[in-house]
Design goal:
Two copies of one chain form a homodimer. By secondary structure, chain A is an alpha/beta fold. Chain A is built from ten helices and 13 strands. In chain A, the strands form three sheets. A five-stranded mixed beta sheet of chain A has the order 3-2-1-4-8. A five-stranded mixed beta sheet of chain A has the order 11-10-9-12-13, sandwiched between helices. In chain A, strand 12, helix 9 and strand 13 (285-288) form a beta-alpha-beta unit. Chains A and B meet through helix 8 of A and helix 8 of B.
Chain lengths: 318, 318
């Protein structure tokens, strides 16, 4: 039996998703990293600075390790912004406020476990492409609509990451002219993310909704301001999907993140409007993610096995 | 010595690019398929129907074979529109007017030579990525601006073709609202292709220019109508390149086709405007194609070797 064979029988992996508002921790069996056995959620507290966020990440990992009845053999961490996977460095995140943070080695030194640092959106793609809503597809896109918008791209069965720089569709120009926090005008995520729906509804009405769910509920209740910001988001998403269909021609687009929980309110009009926009291009299937808002933490748990395998090649287990 | 070794020493390959206005034929040594030794150009005569175009293609091939002092071992054909490479079928071309044409077997039966049927834009990409302006890049885009606009995408060192459906950036919506011949509104190629420059200049002035070169010359001479259609094309291309940079993050974008011959009139403002549009995204290098308007015929000659190798595995050479 190989060392990774031993790991697979007896141990667990941990996946961490560092979101703009919530740190999501997940523990799963090594053999079934896509089946979460234990969840932990804590506020990200990015207002307290990067050091406080790192401390909270380590605390979540400690608690998941302490609660496990089998040894935890590896950890995967999914970070937002720009991530250098090869070096294990979180290069930049506007939401968290860190820059050039060697997060992989910080976690490894604290826990003594091999760790993989990945990008949150691509980690979500690893989950949805591998065993989720795009399982079996060769060409697919994972598009989580959350605080921001990014995309993971599957081209010919492989994730296209361009050294961590690909997939920034949230900062493609859909023509609305409003300024994005990145400094450019017209960015998709400034009008179609869950964060944008909340902000734009508040700007119109003076009432700050609890989240995009509240905006969606108000659309259903006939609120014309909610309808206006919702329709703006749908227009922008349709345009973005038509670009994706024309240029990448994916078989399937998996829409994830908070907004995807709106179900038919989102998917119904989006499919109709996309159909009307395209002519000869391939129509992608539009589906909701299988892992909801846990795609990145599941993906991080799957990626933890990469760290375990890499470690088992250099040192004996356990 | 292997059979393909024999082929490589003693023989030639032919590459054919079936353009909307011109059929371009090229003959090269098997060992150096990217160095054209003999060229032949004939008008496409698409107004005479698909059968006449096929007859002309076969005549070009016959003439290139007849003029060769070494045996021609294989043929590559690059076709526009939608192409099923695996089956060797030209699925659809609006310019040529054919549909579901088994072009590969037609050429094979006529010539007795193994033939590869590919897509014109991706064939051009094969040339520019392999030994042209993007040589050595892992992530690149080839963007020929000709009668229409398409793109070949290199992701992680491989061409992403999505069963022949990827790269239709010419039919992505850049927001100008004019109707494209595909039936949609706002398509990039309806405002920024060489064909669009000619058509839009004629619509403004009543004078039909000889080609996009004439429009470019008029821009340099201070013609305000030429300047207006040129600036519209630049705006649209900047938007398209900003999408490409945000989503695919290529290291380099190779601009080819007739418009690329405009040099600084195109590349200067395009680089400046793209730089102004992007914030944190990777800036692709913008370069002119190394093969000018011969990228597709060179790529077809390179692809001919695939047909030769496939044939040498099933039957002895010669």
């Amino acid at each position: 039996m190989t060392t990774s064979g031993l790991a697979s029988e007896r141990s667990a992996v941990i996946g961490i998703d560092i979101g703009g508002t919530t740190i999501k921790g997940a523990r799963a069996r090594y053999r079934e990293p896509d089946t979460i056995e234990e969840r932990l959620r804590r506020p990200t507290r990015s207002d307290a600075g990067p050091a406080a966020v790192v401390a909270e990440i380590l605390a979540v990992i400690d608690d998941l390790i302490a609660g496990s009845d089998v040894p935890v053999c590896a950890i995967g961490v999914a970070a937002p912004g720009l991530v250098d996977e090869a070096r294990g460095v979180a290069l930049w995140s506007e939401n968290i406020g860190w820059q050039d943070l060697p997060l992989r080695s910080l976690v490894e030194r604290h826990t003594g476990r091999p760790t993989w640092l990945g990008h949150d959106v691509r980690a979500g793609g690893v989950a949805e492409f591998g065993s989720g809503a795009a399982q079996g597809a060769n060409d697919a896109v994972f598009l989580p609509l959350g605080t921001g918008i990014g995309a993971a791209l599957l081209t010919g069965g492989r994730i296209h990451d361009a050294q961590g720089l690909a997939g920034e569709i949230g900062h493609a120009d859909v023509g609305h002219g409003e300024t994005c926090r990145c400094g450019a005008q017209g960015c998709l995520e400034a009008i179609a993310s869950a964060g944008a729906l909340v902000r734009r509804y508040a700007a119109r009405t003076g009432h700050v909704p609890a989240g995009a769910e509240e905006v969606a509920a108000r659309v259903c209740a006939g609120d014309p301001d909610a309808r206006a910001v919702w329709d703006d988001a749908l227009d922008a998403l349709t345009l973005a999907l038509s670009w994706v269909a024309s240029v990448l021609a994916p078989e399937v687009v998996v829409v994830g993140g908070g907004l995807s929980l709106a179900g038919d309110l989102l998917f119904g009009p989006l499919a109709t409007m996309l159909e009307a926009r395209l002519t000869f291009q391939r129509r992608p299937r539009l589906v909701a993610g299988a892992y909801g808002d846990e795609a990145a933490s599941v993906g991080a748990a799957i990626l933890a096995r990469k760290a375990a395998r890499a470690a088992s090649e250099t040192e004996p287990w356990p």
